[in-house]
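debug: dumping io for the single-chain case to check the tokenizer round-trip. Nothing else runs in this session.
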Amino acid sequence: MDFLESRLPPVRAWHRFEYNRHFTENTNNARLFSGCYESFAVAIAAAPKQLRFGHDHEELADRHTSEIGHIWPSDYPVLFWLKTLIQKDSRVFDLGGATGLLFYGFQAYMTFGSGLRWTICEVPSVVRRGRELAQAKGARGVCFTSDVQEASRADIFLASGSLQFIEPNIWSSLASLDLRPRHLILNRIPLYDGPSFVTLHNMGKAVCPCHIWNEREFISHISRLGYDLRDKWDVPEFGCYIPFHPTRSVKHYAGMYFEASQRESASEQKVNDK
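debug: decoded output
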């Protein structure tokens, strides 16, 4: 199609018009992408005005709640590392964890200790729905917040399918913490070997900016904070195809586990001892 359109400009113009019309529809179909932008601000300015913007909507909170119990293949590496790292009194900070997708979903595969504290950081509408659900389920050990700073002094920082939708970048948020978590489990990240940019993502009920990162740059930013990459896996069930930008599309997302280096851990221990 790209080869044909490069030689027939009217066909390419018609294709762009039809796709843009399709992208701006309010539909139940999610995961449509459009455009390449240099920043969140530029992408926000280009977002269709007829669609709702961002994640802070009751309908999205309800959709995430309906997905509880569904485990994707790419969740199993996360489950493996959690079972390896988690202790009975661990503190988990789950950035963008919806109303408890992993908290509830993983309980079918592992036992949480009585002292576990699992904090989910979300937008206000999801926080409200998450608290209602936890109360209805009588869930213990889970709480909700909209403050990323509560990741300070967590043992495990978990983010699955959320980092790309958040500004500032994850490394800036981690750098701002008083004390950074020792373990980072980051899943479903759109990484590739080209330049980093921002695209628009139509989630079906709303549109939002979405980071696409250069893989080496992403790892380098995290490593500069004192973390070592311990594991990496492919996420074949998620990808990002951006029409009219074939070299910017991402075939499959990625997951990674980082651990604070021994030097960083020793420094944090001195802080705790004071």
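debug: round-trip ok. The chain has one domain: 29-273.
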